[in-house]
Design goal:
single chain, alpha/beta
Length: 235
């Protein structure tokens, strides 16, 4: 099957309430145009420069989708990122949240953000450690920032070829999500739990994800250097 058929098949198979973010890292303009024409509504990019290039090349098609930052956000890239992205899924520290809020304020733009949780406490990955009090405290501090709106949690889970091995981590993230949702925090409305990728999205949905980030299962395999932006399974 082609890219269009792959996307439509997955969209039909998973529940309607689950949002699909298509990871466009290293993909071509033609490939992204194909999924947009198939009805894709969310595109995820790992790097600001690649996002700039893709957004520009797509022309008016770029405005048909929501753009998600799914890679680590560098402070010196925030101004450029704000021109493109509608969602920032990888806020991993209050330091970044403050910087994002300051820059968003300069252009008077309200930004939906997710807190990235390092659910496996891996030293090679970014994200807040899976300590509920730390995550809650960060949520409270973000709630006080004028131009940010905390709308979700995001996690990747440990790298493994067996999605069943990631299940406990997804389950733990959902528990944190539910506990945080039960806390009344002004200006915080948790809508999204973003977890699961091409080899693990089915398990992630079973464990409560309502947003998944898919790449290879839609676009086909690609080669890429291992980095800290997404799991090796997406390469």
């Amino acid at each position: 099957m082609g890219i269009r058929e792959n996307y439509l098949k997955i969209r039909e198979e998973i529940p309607d309430y689950v949002e699909i973010v298509l990871a466009s890292k290293t993909r071509t303009k033609k490939e992204i145009e194909e999924v947009i024409s198939a009805g894709a509504k969310n595109i995820g990019e790992n790097y600001v420069q690649e996002a700039e290039n893709m957004y520009s090349s797509l022309g008016k098609d770029a405005e048909k989708v929501q753009w998600h930052m799914i890679g680590s956000l560098q402070k010196n890239k925030i101004n450029k990122a704000l021109k493109i992205f509608d969602y920032f899924q990888t806020v991993d520290s209050f330091h970044i949240a403050e910087a994002l809020n300051t820059r968003a304020g300069q252009i008077n733009k309200i930004i939906p953000v997710f807190v990235e949780v390092n659910i496996g406490s891996e030293i090679t990955k970014s994200g807040v450690k899976p300590d509920f009090e730390k995550i809650k405290n960060m949520a409270v501090k973000i709630s006080e920032l004028t131009f940010l709106r905390l709308e979700g949690l995001m996690t990747m889970g440990p790298r493994t070829g067996d999605p069943q091995k990631i299940r406990p981590y997804f389950r733990k993230t959902k528990e944190i999500f539910d506990r945080l949702s039960a806390v009344v925090i002004p200006n915080v409305s948790l809508k999204y739990l973003s977890m699961g990728m091409s080899n693990s999205y089915k398990v992630a949905i079973e464990e409560g994800a309502n947003m998944v980030r898919l790449g290879t299962i839609v676009f086909g395999k690609r080669s890429c250097a291992l980095d800290n932006s997404e799991e090796v399974n997406e390469c």
